[in-house]
Amino acid sequence: MSDYKTLSVADVSVGDKLPELDIDITSGLIVGGALATRDFEPVHHDKSVAQAAGLPDIFMNILTSQGLMSRFVTDWSGPEAIVKSLDVKLGAPNLPGMVMTVAGEVTACDAEAGVVDIAVTGENNIWGMHMQGSVQIVLPVEG
């Protein structure tokens, strides 16, 4: 039996804030995320190529950012939550050595359908806003 509990839509209200999550941005996270998403652009794993492009080091790809955004929401909502959609806008790059703080807030909740919208932001400790957007999930209607 799992220790993880899935929220029901009755557990959620507009304005609820999700617990913030600090994510250490490491070379391993950046390279692993790029390879896992089949993004072989050298700026995500070769420091000299990233420097030639004007950045001090390799930087995170958008698919890794999307994955971290989804993980943040599903860690809060539980394993039975279904991600229906994700919308993300990128800002400042995430580089090794940074820490990204992810925060979220429930912006809409349809109690009949179990659909919940969450606004999500991720800010790194050096350059600020890395990602902002929304994740829509479906939760069980009854708990």
CATH class: Alpha Beta
Oligomeric assembly: single chain
**Total domains, how many?**
1
Under CATH, the topology can be stated as: Thiol Ester Dehydrase, Chain A
- By DSSP (H or I, 4+ residues per run), the number of helices equals 3
Helix share bin: 10-25%
Structural class: alpha+beta
- Morphology: elongated
* Major sheet attributes: 5 strands, antiparallel
**Can you list the strand order of the major beta sheet?**
1-3-4-5-2
Low-confidence stretches: none
Tell me the distance between the termini: 17 Å
What are the key terms here?
elongated; 3 helices; Thiol Ester Dehydrase, Chain A; five-stranded antiparallel beta sheet
Layout of secondary structure:
Elements: E1 17-24, H1 27-36, H2 47-52, H3 62-77, E2 82-90, E3 99-110, E4 115-124, E5 128-138
Antiparallel strand pairs: 1-3, 2-5, 3-4, 4-5
